[in-house]
Amino acid sequence: MINNQYLESIKKQFLYYKTLGEKAMEQLDPEQLFISVNDDTNSIAVIVNHLSGNMLSRWTDFLTTDGEKEWRNRDGEFEEIIKTKEALLTVWNEGWECFFDALNSLTPEQLETIIYIRNEGHTVVEAINRQLAHYPYHIGQIVFYAKMLKRDEWNSLSIPKNKSNTYNADKFSKEKSIKNFTDDELNRLK
Questions:
Q1: Residue 121 pairs with which residues in a beta bridge?
Q2: What are phi and psi of 8, to 5 degrees?
Q3: Are 98 and 56 in contact (CB under 8 A)?
Q4: SS3 per residue for the chain
Q5: Measured distance CA(16)–CA(28) in Å, rounded
Q6: What is the pLDDT along the chain (190 residues), one digit of tens a residue?
Q7: Distance (Å, whole) CA 76 – CA 97
């Protein structure tokens, strides 16, 4: 039973972070997706390209092949190869589709299966948790970068500044319930 709950919870959490990234990028003008402030900084387009490359490599045939595919060009993911917002969204969606297809194909019994990433064995749970740290790390970069680029025109994706008391009052005005935190957050982001 806990394995079913884990799978459902993890899917909701990844969907939440995917949505955060999308809501951040939606607030930008198309050209802002390609801004890099210096040679050591990746544009949002580069971050998207890296995330997608990682997802495609890690989750294509993930139960039977190493997560670092021979065809992956990780260094190339950090080059400015995406040129339009439409291409960026296509790359973004390809990566997420591959990832969610892999998650949706899992059964609870497979969570303890050993898979490999660069010849290092992980249970499927460990591999998922590894990505739960990696993907939100980059989504956070996208959100932070977008917020900096928008400046005063930013629509908050979390509890707005100086609104914690209002947010908490609303939460505590409701009956206690057991649900994933993302249930309310995804509705709020719509």
A1: 116
A2: -65, -40
A3: yes
A4: CHHHHHHHHHHHHHHHHHHHHHHHHHCCCHHHHHCCCCCCCCCHHHHHHHHHHHHHHHHCCCCCCCCCCCCCCCHHHHCCCCCCHHHHHHHHHHHHHHHHHHHHHCCHHHHHCEEEECCEEEEHHHHHHHHHHHHHHHHHHHHHHHHHHHHHHCCCCCCCCCCHHHHHHHHHCCCCCCCCHHHHHHHHHC
A5: 19
A6: 578 899 999 999 999 999 999 999 999 999 999 999 898 999 999 999 999 999 999 999 999 999 999 999 999 999 999 999 999 999 999 999 999 999 999 999 999 999 999 999 999 999 999 999 999 999 999 999 999 999 888 998 888 888 899 888 888 888 888 877 787 777 777 7
A7: 21
Distance (Å, rounded) from C-alpha 102 to C-alpha 142? 24
Q: How far apart are CA 129 and CA 120, in angstroms?
A: 15
**Exposed / middle / buried, residue 101 (Cβ in 10 Å: 0-12, 13-18, 19+):** exposed
Inter-residue contact 85 to 30 (CB < 8 Å): yes
